[in-house]
Amino acid sequence: MRQSLTAVLERNRTLSGEFATEPYEVAWAAEARWFVRTLERSGAGARLRVTTQVSPDGLHWCDLEPAREVTGELETWTSAEFGGWLRLKGTVEPGGTASEGAEGAEGAGGPAAVKVMIYLALKS
Question: Considering the entire predicted model, what is its pTM?
Answer without folding.
Answer: 0.85
